[in-house]
Amino acid sequence: xxxxxxxxxxxxxxxxxxxxxxxxxxxxxxxxxxxxxxxxxxxxxxxxxxxxxxxxxxxxxxxxxxxxxxxxxxxxxxxxxxxxxxxxxxxxxxxxxxxxxxxxxxxxxxxxxxxxxxxxxxxxxxxxxxxxxxxxxxxxxxxxxxxxxxxxxxxxxxxxxxxxxxxxxxxxxxxxxxxxxxxxxxxxxxxxxxxxxxxxxxxxxxxxxxxxxxxxxxxxxxxxxxxxxxxxxxxxxxxxxxxxxxxxxxxxxxxxxxxxxxxxxxxxxxxxxxxxxxxxxxxxxxxxxxxxxxxxxxxxxxxxxxxxxxxxxxxxxxxxxxxxxxxxxxxxxxxxxxxxxxxxxxxxxxxxxxxxxxxxxxxxxxxxxxxxxxxxxxxxxxxxxxxxxxxxxxxxxxxxxxxxxxxxxxxxxxxxxxxxxxxxxxxxxxxxxxxxxxxxxxxxxxxxxxxxxxxxxxxxxxxxxxxxxxxxx
Length: 473
Hints:
Number of strands: 10
CATH architecture of the domain at 52-123 and 414-473: 2-Layer Sandwich
CATH class of the domain at 52-123 and 414-473: Alpha Beta
Distance between the termini: 96 Å
CATH topology of the domain at 52-123 and 414-473: Pantoate--beta-alanine Ligase, Chain: A,domain 2
Structural class: alpha/beta
CATH superfamily of the domain at 52-123 and 414-473: GSPII I/J protein-like
Strand order of the largest sheet: 1-8-9-10
Number of helices: 12
Shape: elongated
């Protein structure tokens, strides 16, 4: 039997060692890759869990907003900036207890998402529906309603029920004569109002829109809404023959040349991160009832309703409804610490609710007559208008100007947007929920959309940067 030389055994040992190292290296690579994949999957699962918890918190705040709006409706028919929905009590991260120590606070923060929200009155904005043409068949005489079911008969057809005999053809509703010239004037005025809003909503800032650009953007939006085909790969159906010529979301207006995200939405000023540059979405809408609430509309929107040489009347209106007192109060609150500001606002809300309860009972609990409240003050002092006619009664505008702006104004709001911003860990989410409050006391959700950018108007950015969560209130 031939003996193996020592050198041969050493070669075999070297090969075995190399194979062992190679296998270990491969196993190490697999282990590292597996650990990395597991970490990624865990992070994704955690983000998904956080997003689901944020969504559940959002749903709870939507129910709360609906309850606030229904309660506010029960307090009176007018709406103003002094109503409860203007400063609702949503989830506030500053309410989290801190007496459990740092570890307990971190555990609590990991369990509960931080939510902030704001209710915005869509009826305070100019509705782009005014840009849509009014068809001749849309205007009907006052007797164009069926007496049996009180429904409009815009097509000139008779509405016959099961047991109702068919009417004679002579009973068909009569159409009002359509004034084409009057319609052209109305449409031109609608474009002019939108152009004025675009021209002035950032006036005095480095991001002001020039009159020429404002004119091009307003006309571009008008052409986009009234286009005869989809223009972007659609089926070519005439939009005016469909249910509505309005877009489903303001994001669709980004297809208009000159309309960018920085124009449409709020953003932080790069030169001053604590300054918010307002977006056009704060002044125009597609969801309101069509009329503008004179108690909540921004001065920019009110100015656009007047002729160019009478726009200062808008400032007189905002002064008469008490805006200057509100600005002074906001300046006073901003000078206070955050805790003191929060306590002051809580006391004010409690006092306002007590006042309304006393009014509902017929007077002051101490024998006085407390009829003046935020929902029903008919005194000559500055405060919310109880009817549009007060603008003329207080000699704020001339009768000629009043007749021009009257078709656009109201003192009631029916449609609101609820902006919610949720944060948990590194997961953030923003949504917009549009709520419609009906005369029957219902508050229905008509839109729920996820937003790419947060709604910043009214946010305390300094508190947000400090890790306090900021907030709209």
